Amino acid sequence: MADLKSRTSLTDEYIVNGGNGEVIIDLIIGAMGQSGISIIKLDSVVLADEIIGSLVGFVIGTNKEVENKFLTVTTIITDVSKDSDVTSLDFAIKGGNQPFKAKMERAVQGEGDSVAYDIDIFFHQQLL
Fold first, then answer.
1. How far apart are CA 65 and CA 85, in angstroms?
2. Distance between CA 8 and CA 21 in Å, rounded?
């Protein structure tokens, strides 16, 4: 798992296999006392708009359907915990050649502050 402490953006690639198997993402809002809202797009098509909280097992399409496209996820996390000022986001993809995981986190000044997390993933087949 890539650990991206103090990072709020992730740009990477994910290798798909061109088949009909589903590509699935998980988007987990961090510790207790954090609230999040997300928008998920595949190229310019909105797949999920204003999703509140975590998202597990969200199908974005088949390997064939996502190939040569960009997944864009924007999540705003607000710290509402009295115990901690750290926001975090766990992101995972499965269904292609191998699973991918990343964790990002950022401390805020105080309760009620928000952080924007941005994820951009390009899907492609591995060149031989």
1. 39
2. 30
- Give 112's Cβ-side CA count (13 Å radius): 0
Single-letter residue type at 30: G
Neighbouring C-beta atoms of residue 72, cutoff 10 Å: 17
State how far the Cα of 40 lies from the Cα of 99, in Å rounded to an integer: 19
Length of the chain: 128
- Pick out the chain residues at pLDDT < 70: 1-5, 127-128
Q: How far apart are CA 80 and CA 32, in angstroms?
A: 9
**Which pLDDT score, from 0 to 100, does residue 110 have?**
81
